[in-house]
Amino acid sequence: MRRRCTPRQNSNSCTSFTSNEIKRSERRLETAAGDLRRAAGCMRTGRS
């Protein structure tokens, strides 16, 4: 899986993140992973 970097991550160190930003990023990653699992399940069962 390719990890996208935001401009802020590129210019600043990750330690400058606030805990809220980290939580938001983790939630976004979890949601993306859930979407991928759902998409894979649809492909396996042949449903669109």
- What fraction strand? under 5%
Helix fraction? Answer: 55-70%
Uncertain ranges: none
Instruction: Return the structural class.
Output: mainly alpha
Number of DSSP strands?
0
Q: Rg from C-alpha positions? A: 15 Å
Which features would summarize this protein structure in a list?
mainly alpha; 48 residues
Model description:
By secondary structure, the protein is mostly helical. The chain has a domain at 16-45. The chain has helices at residues 7-11, 19-45. It starts with 6 loop residues before the first helix and ends with a helix.
Quick summary of this structure?
Helices cover 67% and strands 0% of the residues.
Question: How are the SSEs placed, and which strands pair?
Answer:
Blueprint: H1 7-11, H2 19-45
